[in-house]
Amino acid sequence: MEKILIKQYKKPRLTNSILIGGLPGIGNIGKIAADYIIEKLKMQKLAEIFSQYLPPQVFVTENGMVYLARNTLYYKKIPGKRDLLILVGDFQGTTQEGQYEMSYNVLELLRKFDLSFVYTLGGYSTGKIVETPRVLGAVTDNSILGNLKENGVVFPKGEPGGGIVGSAGILLGLAKELFDIDGACLMGETSGYFADPRGAMEVLKVLSSILGFTIDLAEIEERSKQIEQITGRMQEDLQNKASKKEDLGYFG
Amino acid sequence: MEKILIKQYKKPRLTNSILIGGLPGIGNIGKIAADYIIEKLKMQKLAEIFSQYLPPQVFVTENGMVYLARNTLYYKKIPGKRDLLILVGDFQGTTQEGQYEMSYNVLELLRKFDLSFVYTLGGYSTGKIVETPRVLGAVTDNSILGNLKENGVVFPKGEPGGGIVGSAGILLGLAKELFDIDGACLMGETSGYFADPRGAMEVLKVLSSILGFTIDLAEIEERSKQIEQITGRMQEDLQNKASKKEDLGYFG
Amino acid sequence: MEKILIKQYKKPRLTNSILIGGLPGIGNIGKIAADYIIEKLKMQKLAEIFSQYLPPQVFVTENGMVYLARNTLYYKKIPGKRDLLILVGDFQGTTQEGQYEMSYNVLELLRKFDLSFVYTLGGYSTGKIVETPRVLGAVTDNSILGNLKENGVVFPKGEPGGGIVGSAGILLGLAKELFDIDGACLMGETSGYFADPRGAMEVLKVLSSILGFTIDLAEIEERSKQIEQITGRMQEDLQNKASKKEDLGYFG
Amino acid sequence: MEKILIKQYKKPRLTNSILIGGLPGIGNIGKIAADYIIEKLKMQKLAEIFSQYLPPQVFVTENGMVYLARNTLYYKKIPGKRDLLILVGDFQGTTQEGQYEMSYNVLELLRKFDLSFVYTLGGYSTGKIVETPRVLGAVTDNSILGNLKENGVVFPKGEPGGGIVGSAGILLGLAKELFDIDGACLMGETSGYFADPRGAMEVLKVLSSILGFTIDLAEIEERSKQIEQITGRMQEDLQNKASKKEDLGYFG
Fold first, then answer.
1. Angstroms from C223 CA to nearest CA on chain B
2. All structural domains of chain C
3. Of A82, D151, C137, D31, the residue nearest B60 (C-alpha)
4. To pair with B246 at 20 to 30 A between CA atoms, which of B114, B131, C94, C158?
């Protein structure tokens, strides 16, 4: 079989289109944000991607249906603005080769849809709960910096220190080097310990501001609050335990 | 060499045929059930599959003969009913690529034999000894649910939680997405700690009921009882030890 | 580059030739025995095999020369008898694919030299020092058993239990299934803890007896004795330590 | 996508050219030395190599630019002498196959530039701080030994014991066996615990002496001293702690 199999469902005429990459990753920031946009903007399925670079696994839905692991591309024509494409999925390619091939094949396909810019969404792991997560950026060209900064993206020196590994990095790298397409990575700060709607919401705010579309954030805000309550309680518990331990320490 | 080498021994004319996938897996349920059907229905060898996706290993039989690791397809024409195909073997493909390729090539080959439905047999690991193992199901299409439920297959919500990994899942996923062939997975409950004829027997009961063939279960029932005696004694021993420990606890 | 690159140096006309496979493995039995035959029979280099399936490594000789990892084939025409081919090397293929491909390509090449039988030499790990190592066998066909038994090869039921993994197994398996060439594996018993000339010598005795050539064993016997003295001293030391420990035990 | 993608920027006419391989490795000796030559000799970019054999990773520069992982070739025409080529990069190929393919493709490309000799630079790990690091050598042909020895390279028997693994070894091995091009490996002694400009400087001295070019070593000497001060302090600290521990030992 071919290593990557693309089932294309539609042939829309898109112009000057923008790809938003939101595969699973740190804090699942990218996936949460991308899935949210697809739902709120009622985007349409463009293509599904099956591949040996994804785990040999089917999921089982609540009503017993099997569902083969895949990546999916959605699109939306946006009159008067740049059209939108989104890449989401169950997994990133699981091997080094898979990372390159999956990203390359997506870019190769989307060239037919006048792809002209790539945003990848990801998480930036801080290792601790962040009160007000920042959105860090990285770009393929100097000319992009200004616009992002105006929209609240920060570019602290030396961050992210280890570079960007996986789909959020390689999509940009390949777009730039092999397709001559510019792009930017937007990374929402997150503890990295759980799927984090709070960081995803901050990324969504910045992205909608940059792209000039409006998106109802009420639902993701609600989910963020629920998570914060849970993690808040967990922190309290931990602090209580810690202080008790300290107390005992005096007598031990 | 080619990555997958198929030696085909027969060219039967099969109609509307059903594949039963029974490669080694959790509790070896699928393999035990499939091997049992082959023996009891006196099925014939259709093809052998050698591959780089299987371990570089020969087995040595009791009388010193070496035997290269392989997968094997058997068939049986069943007058007035759908013909039967069975996939068994020493191993599943050992890599992610191997999982996809082995399943894909089997489906590709069996298209020539009018393959029209796929059952995969597997185990569902409970982590403890199960008195009366259920048979869980997962299907590729809603229309299949009713028939399976009538034959005793259960579809509890959220089970199996992690989806189905390996041959039992990917055969169904690829059949559905790439060959437009429907299918179902039948998973017998098992502790998962040993090769489990009891779970395999439950799967056999359900499968023969669905497909409408009769199969003599006396031998597998006997093997199940032997295993239950052994595991029963092991459990007693464990409980005795545990209660002794408890006793000692009072004095310790 | 091609995954396997063969540099062929000679084009001898061989008839009814026999391949002896002696790549590194358990106790290095196969390699020690095969290297010994090459030296004592003054065999000639037929071909060298370089490959991505071998580690990316050069060795450095005593006088500072680098030497790329490889497998090598030697041959010797033996008037009035079956001609001899030997496969030796620095490594076995390091991946599953590499195991299949390296063995397949050797067999494919040697078909041109009228290959008609394959012996693979290996070790059978006992996990303890063996006083008088047996030579175990496994064959591809019943008709081979008698001759091997007459020459001292034993075929104990259920041994080797886990089959034969790696080059010694896959060469036979592929020869049989894909080239219709019979063969046998000769496994010298060894502790498996160190390179073991003693086990290799026993394999050499059996093999020369089967093939009807004479080989001077004085040198390998000498090396065996040296190893036995070292391991003998090590065992004494261990026993002394063990008995001292016991002594201390009474007072501890 | 192709597994290795080469972007060639220039087509210089080079004659009798020498490749210096300096990819990351033990103590980063090779990379430090090669980067230093490129800077000091103001070499020009010949080609960039992107590949699936490199990690799927972009780096982020101080000013927020992403930079896809790559290897790069530089060149310099040197009037009256052999022209110079240098291979540097962010990573070596990360798999066995990648090691072979990356080295092979570099050699294949450079044949067009009259490549006639290969030096690979590397580190030789001693596991402890070395006061005056030696430069060890290994060569593909006896005729090269004399010249290297005259320039201070040492060839101690049995070193390096485990051969040379990775790019520094395989470049030489493939050049010799597949391209009939000779070469030598120069290994600077290093503790192996950190990026080591001191060992790199010794390699540079030897290399410039062999090739007859002059290179200003002031900057790397400065960096070496800084490192030595840091590691010197670290050693003092460790010794102080060790002696204090000893002191305490008397009272404990």
1. 31
2. 4-217 (3.40.50.10900)
3. C137
4. B131
Chains D and B: 3 or more CB pairs within 8 Å of each other: no
Q: Are B15 and B85 in contact (CB under 8 A)?
A: no
Chain B residues inside the 8 Å CB shell of A49: none
Element (H, E) at B39: helix B29-40
Residues B18 and B57: beta-carbon distance below 8 Å: no
* ipTM rounded to 2 decimals: 0.91
SS3 A194: coil
Asked if residue C177 has pLDDT above 60, the reply is yes
Rg (CA), chain B: 20
Stated pTM of the model: 0.92
* Chains near D (3 or more Cβ pairs under 8 Å): A, C
Residue C213 Ramachandran class (φ > 0 left, ψ -120 to 50 alpha, else beta) = beta
- Give B245's pLDDT tier (boundaries 50, 70, 90): low
Quick check: C68 contacting D, CB < 8 Å?
yes
- C70 to chain D, minimum CA–CA distance in Å? 10
Contact partners for chain B, using 3 or more CB pairs closer than 8 A, are: A, C
| Partner D contacted by C101 (CB < 8 A) | no
Instruction: Give the residue ranges of DSSP H helices in chain A.
Output: 29-40, 96-110, 142-150, 167-179, 197-211, 218-251
CB D72 within 8 A of CB D8: no
| Interchain CB distance below 8 Å, D170 and C56 | yes
Model confidence band, residue C134 (pLDDT cutoffs 50, 70, 90):
very high
Output the pLDDT for position D62.
93
Residues A133, A187: Cα–Cα separation, whole Å: 10
A and C touching (3 or more beta-carbon pairs closer than 8 Å): no
What are C77-103's pLDDT values in tens digits? Answer: 998 889 999 999 999 999 999 999 999
Hey, of A170, A181, A182, which one would you mutate to test binding to chain D, going by the most D CBs within 10 A of its CB?
A170
% of chain A beyond a pLDDT of 90: 81
Q: Render the burial of A92-121: b for 16+ CB within 10 Å, e for the rest.
A: bbbbbbbbbbbbbbbbbbbeebebbbbbbb
List, in sequence order, every residue forming a beta bridge with D21; answer none if it has no partner.
D87, D120
Contact criterion met (CB below 8 Å) for D27 and D196: yes
Strand locations in B11-90 (E): 17-21, 44-51, 57-60, 66-68, 71-76, 84-89
Q: Determine contact, residues B53/C129, Cβ cutoff 8 Å.
A: no
Given the DSSP bridges, would you call strands D66-68 and D183-190 parallel, antiparallel or unpaired? unpaired
The closest alpha carbon to B27, from B136, B107, B116, belongs to B136
Shortest CA gap D94–chain A (Å)? 9
B143 touches chain C (CB under 8 A): no
Indicate the DSSP class of residue A28: G
pLDDT of the residue at D249:
38
B51 touches chain A (CB under 8 A): no
Contact D135, D155 (CB under 8 A): no
Q: What is the pLDDT of residue A130?
A: 83
Please check the confidence at residue D131 and state whether its pLDDT lies above 80. yes
Partners of residue B57 in chain C, C-beta under 8 Å: 163-166, 169-170, 173
Q: How close A226 comes to chain D (CA, Å)? A: 34
Q: What average pLDDT does the segment D224-244 reach?
A: 77
Own/partner long-range contacts of A175-178 (Cβ < 8 Å, ≥24 apart): A175/A107, A175/A118, A175/A140, A176/A140, A176/A141, A176/D66, A176/D68, A177/D7, A177/D50, A177/D68, A178/A104, A178/A107, A178/D1, A178/D5, A178/D50
Assess contact for D134 and D187: CB atoms under 8 A. no
Taking the C-alpha atoms of residue B159 and residue B49, their distance in angstroms, rounded to an integer, is 32
Chain B residues within 8 A of C178 when measuring between CB atoms: 1, 5, 50
Write the residue in D93, D164, D178 that is nearest to C58 by C-beta.
D164
